[in-house]
């Protein structure tokens, strides 16, 4: 599956994905690959866990994912590794559609489930991502900070909502409310610069 997390800065996207990474690594004990690092102190303290792999945008290629799957996955089994690409518009910008690697990405994304991957792509808005890549999204999860709404400003803790849509038909599937939790918030540095 390809999930697309959208929302303005401060809307809870990073907190939501930190929760997803925590669940995948420490509860399901499965692997995670991301284009940002996590707090290694927290990761190293846990005994039973999945493998976390940080890879920079410059090394993030379909070829890497094919090789990783050959080395770490059981052939034909889905959802073995979660891949998180934050600020995905840097890699999949619509203005760079002539990029020679774009067709390789499209071919890979059309077959990613066969290779055992689920993806979470994160950006502020779907239009910042190439149309050919967007066409492969299964779900969009729109994030909002509830405290920014008129009556909700009285809520004493930061509260967020993630509204899930079936991307192809823009049909709302459900929503989830969540608040900040240290175990998730401390896992991920939200101020990482992806152009370094």
Automatic annotation (TrEMBL):
Gene3D superfamilies: P-loop containing nucleotide triphosphate hydrolases. InterPro entries: P-loop_NTPase (IPR027417), Zot_N (IPR008900). SUPFAM superfamilies: P-loop containing nucleoside triphosphate hydrolases (SSF52540). Pfam families: Zot. Residues 1-146 form the Zona occludens toxin N-terminal domain. This is Zonular occludens toxin domain-containing protein. The lineage of its organism: Bacteria, Bacillati, Bacillota, Clostridia, Peptostreptococcales.
